[in-house]
Amino acid sequence: MAINDVFPFTTGMTKSNDSASSDNIQIMNDEGGYQIYFLCNGKAGKGTVDGGDGKWVKDGESSVTTDTIKNGTGFWYVSKAFIDNASATPYTINVAGQVLMASESSREIAQQYMLVANPYPCDVPLNNGVQVTKGATKSNDSSTADNIQIMNADGGYSIYFLCNGKAGKATVEGGDGKWVKDGETLVTTDTFPAGRGGWFVSKSGDTAVKFVSPINE
Question: Where are the domains of the chain?
Answer without folding.
Answer: 3-84, 104-216
